[in-house]
Amino acid sequence: MLPLAFLGDFGDAIDFILHSREQAAGGAQVGGLSQFGSLTWDHMKLTLAAMGLACVIALPLGMWLGHKGKGGFLAINASNVGRAVPSFALIAFFFAYLGAGFTNVMLALVLLAIPPILTNAYVGIRQSDRDTVDSARGMGMTEGQIVRRVELPLAVPLIFGGIRTSMVNVLATATLAPLIGVSSLGDPIINVTTYGDPARLAAAIVVALLAVTTEFVLAGVQRAVTPRGLKLEKGMPGLWGRLPLINRREATT
User: Does the pTM exceed 0.85?
Assistant: First the structure.
């Protein structure tokens, strides 16, 4: 702890993450990499399960509505409805009517994750260049091929924007899971009498690091799967993408 003492409470929280200590009331060992590793795994397992199910539901629906040009009111306002419902109220509702357990918490998080994914999928497909879509249709492509080969690649940046937003929201909200008996990084935050104040700050630090890491990872995946021509047109991050068209031409000579 001595090397981190100058950091005060922040240093104590970091030490709690790295080293276990005796519980203030009871004598049991709490903290340390082993316990935080286990809590982090539980947290990410809940988050990824909710995000996976949300993507399976929202992406096909949003893309289909966007391709058909129908259900715009539903898709656009879904995000507003999602923001209007407090996360705690949503989890409390599921607990009251469905009970505790991993599945029930996951379903509550799925409902939280769907609106941004659905809205961005719809908007991304609808904003695909209509001339390009009409040309693909004129070439004899089926509607499914148009969605997969034309509209989806053009919509990737917006779709990933929705996924990134939902992922961070779900990751943060999963800290409420211990309120209904599901283990996550919210345990040290909620059960202060068991873990102590340093554990609360330590868990908050880990959740924040997970959120930042997730944002950077998904941003990298988004850049990797975005077509190169779209990167140049949109000027996505990266030296080559930021160069004006005339400079790109000069750079190749």
Answer: no
